[in-house]
């Protein structure tokens, strides 16, 4: 019995998806879903660009999990998966200008506009606790 490469990859990354969706974060898997949610989200929206890289597992996803335990959190929680849902990720990145594409990364939007962004290089060199502190500070500033 053989398994297709695509099925193998889906099976391998599902736990990485589950790590965020188990927190109540909604996956946006198509450009249409991104376009439906991001520009029309009233209030604040967190958008996590998920990734298979080690820094996503070691710092980014755990940092997001810690931040979502804060008293103030965004009204909407979304994720796209770089390298897997390529078209959805590309569409989401259109809202993150002027920042270049990076993954993992984390965007905080308010009423459809980017107000805070954490790039990959800010994930790689920081602990989950530092990322959570950065996010909770942004939550305190923008999620009121």
UniProtKB/TrEMBL annotation:
Signal peptide start and end residues: none
Pfam families registered for this protein in UniProt: Disulph_isomer
Coiled coil: none
InterPro entries tied to this protein: BrxB/BrxA
Family statement: Belongs to the bacilliredoxin family.
Protein name from the UniProt record: Putative YphP/YqiW family bacilliredoxin
Gene source species: Fontibacillus solani
């Amino acid at each position: 019995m053989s398994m297709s490469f695509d099925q193998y990859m889906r099976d391998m990354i599902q736990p990485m998806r589950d790590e965020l969706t188990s927190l109540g974060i909604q996956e946006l898997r198509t450009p249409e879903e991104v376009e439906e949610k991001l520009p029309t989200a009233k209030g604040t929206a967190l958008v996590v660009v998920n990734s298979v890289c080690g820094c996503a597992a070691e710092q980014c996803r755990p940092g997001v999990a810690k931040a979502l335990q804060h008293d103030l959190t965004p009204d909407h929680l979304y994720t796209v998966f770089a390298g897997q849902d390529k078209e959805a990720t590309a569409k989401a990145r259109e809202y993150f200008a002027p920042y270049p594409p990076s993954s993992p990364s984390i965007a905080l939007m308010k009423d459809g506009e980017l107000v805070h962004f954490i790039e990959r290089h800010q994930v790689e060199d920081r602990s989950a606790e530092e990322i959570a502190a950065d996010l909770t500070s942004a939550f305190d500033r923008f999620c009121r």
